[in-house]
Specification:
The protein is mostly helical. Helix 6 runs antiparallel to helix 9, helix 7 runs antiparallel to helix 8 and helix 13 runs antiparallel to helix 14. The longest helix has 31 residues.
C-alpha cells in the first residue's frame, strides 16, 4: 500500500508552498506603465494603471467562487484550475493589443488567482501543527517573493524587447502546476486544522465570520492601497525624472521582492523580540522610507529605500496573516481567508483612482508626492494598530 504523506514530508511542503509562487498581481508587469501610457495615449493615466491592478477585480470574483468550486472539485483540482486559468489569460496581452481585450484578459487572469489563492493559506492552516504552521506562513511569504523575483527578472529582459512580450512572464505558472500535480495528494482535500494523517472527515460546520475578521480585512485593504503607490508610481517617477529606465525599475522591483524573502525567513525572530508591536514598528519604518523616496536622486539610494519597504512588507504580511488564526471562527479559516483576500484586492483595485482623487484634492499629481503622502498614511495605520492590539489583546 502506498504510504500516505505526512506533515513532515518535504515534497508535500514544497508542493503546498508552490501555490504561493505568484502572490503579486501587479509588480511583474508594472514596469510597462510608462510604455503603455504612450501606446494608449488616448487613455488617462488612471485607466492605464487599471490594466495593472484590474486582476484584483477578478480575484474578488474568483475568491467568491473558490469555495463553491472547491466543494465540487476538491482542493487540488481547484488549485490546478485556478493556476491554469491564470496562465492562459496572463499571456494573452502578448498577442492582442486592443485596450479592452487586455483589460478583459487581465481580469480573467485575476479570476484564476482568486480561485487558488485562498487555498494557499488554508492548505497550511488545515494540514500542519501550530508550530510548523507559523513557520510555513513566514515561508509562504518568502516563496511568493522568490516567485515574484524570478518573474520580475525575466520581465526585465522581456520588457527590453517590447511591453507586449513582458506578459509572457506568466508562463512561469507552469512550475506550480507541475509541483502541485506531482507532490500534493488528493487525500489532502479531506484534512482539517492540524491533522497529520490526512484521512479525516470533512468538517460539516457552516463557515461564519465576525467583526474581528472584518477589521483585519480592512487593515489589509489600507496597507495594500498605500503600499501600491510604489508599484504604480515608482516607474513613472524614475522614467520622468531621468533617474533610470523602465528595465531598471523592473529590476528594482525584483530586488524588492527578494528582500521580502529574508524578512519572511526572519519573521519568527522578529516576533519573538518585538511581539505584538511587530506590525506597528515595521509600518513606521515603511512610512519613513516612503517619505524619503521622492527626494532620492540616484538609483542606488532609490534601491536602498525600496528594499527597506520590501523588507518591512515581508514582515507585516505574515504577522497580519497570523492574526487570522486568532480572529477566525472555528472551522471557518477558508471563509476567513476569502474575506481577507477580498479586502486586499479592493485595496489594490481602488489604488489608481484613489491616487487620482487624492491628487485632485491636493492639486498635485506628481508621483513622488503620491508616494510621500502614502508614507504619511502608513503613520496613521501604525497608530491604529496600537489601538487594535491593546483593545483586542493580541499577542501578535
Amino acid at each position: 500500500m502506498e504510504k500516505k504523506p505526512t506533515q513532515n514530508s518535504t515534497a508535500l511542503t514544497i508542493g503546498i508552498l508552490s501555490i504561493s509562487f505568484l502572490m503579486s498581481v501587479s509588480n511583474a508587469v508594472s514596469g510597462t506603465i510608462p510604455s503603455m501610457e504612450k501606446y494608449f495615449s488616448n487613455m488617462s493615466l488612471a485607466n492605464v494603471e487599471l490594466l495593472i491592478v484590474i486582476p484584483t477585480a477578478g480575484v474578488l470574483l474568483g475568491t467568491v467562487i473558490s469555495g463553491l468550486i472547491s466543494n465540487a472539485l476538491g482542493k487540488k483540482n481547484t488549485v490546478l484550475l485556478g493556476l491554469t486559468i491564470s496562465l492562459l489569460f496572463g499571456i494573452i496581452p502578448t498577442f492582442f493589443f486592443n485596450y479592452f481585450s487586455i483589460l478583459l484578459s487581465r481580469a480573467l487572469f485575476g479570476v484564476g488567482m482568486g480561485i487558488f489563492t485562498p487555498l494557499s493559506v488554508s492548505y497550511i492552516t488545515d494540514t500542519f501543527s501550530e508550530e510548523k504552521r507559523n513557520k510555513l506562513l513566514g515561508w509562504r511569504n518568502s516563496i511568493g517573493a522568490i516567485g515574484d523575483a524570478i518573474m520580475l527578472f525575466i520581465a526585465g529582459f522581456l520588457i527590453s524587447i517590447s511591453w507586449h512580450t513582458t506578459y509572457l512572464v506568466f508562463l512561469f505558472l507552469i512550475v506550480p502546476i507541475i509541483l502541485v500535480t506531482v507532490f500534493v495528494p488528493k487525500e489532502l482535500d479531506q484534512a482539517t486544522a492540524g491533522d497529520v494523517a490526512l484521512d479525516v472527515e470533512v468538517s460539516k460546520t457552516k463557515p461564519t465570520t465576525n467583526f474581528g475578521v472584518i477589521k483585519l480585512a480592512g487593515l489589509f485593504l489600507f496597507i495594500c492601497l498605500f503600499y501600491s503607490a510604489i508599484s504604480l508610481k515608482l516607474p513613472t517617477l524614475v522614467v520622468d525624472s531621468g533617474i533610470g529606465t523602465a528595465t531598471q525599475v523592473t529590476h528594482i522591483f525584483g530586488f524588492l521582492v527578494l528582500c521580502s524573502i529574508f524578512s519572511g525567513i526572519a519573521f519568527e525572530k522578529f516576533v519573538k523580540v518585538l511581539g505584538k508591536y511587530t506590525v506597528t514598528i515595521f509600518e513606521v519604518i515603511t512610512a519613513i522610507a516612503m517619505m524619503i523616496i521622492p527626494f532620492a536622486h540616484s538609483l542606488t539610494m532609490l534601491l536602498a529605500l525600496v528594499l527597506i519597504c520590501g523588507f518591512c512588507n515581508g514582515v507585516i504580511n505574515p504577522a497580519l496573516t497570523a492574526r487570522m488564526v486568532a480572529y477566525s471562527p472555528k472551522d471557518s479559516m477558508n471563509f476567513t481567508t476569502s474575506i481577507i483576500i477580498i479586502g486586499i484586492n479592493i485595496g489594490f483595485l481602488c489604488a489608481p483612482y484613489f491616487f487620482q482623487f487624492f491628487g485632485n484634492l491636493i492639486h498635485n499629481h506628481n508621483p513622488g508626492s503620491i508616494i510621500f503622502f502614502s508614507g504619511l498614511f502608513y503613520i496613521a495605520l501604525s497608530l491604529y494598530d496600537l489601538v487594535v492590539i491593546k483593545k483586542d489583546q493580541l499577542s501578535l
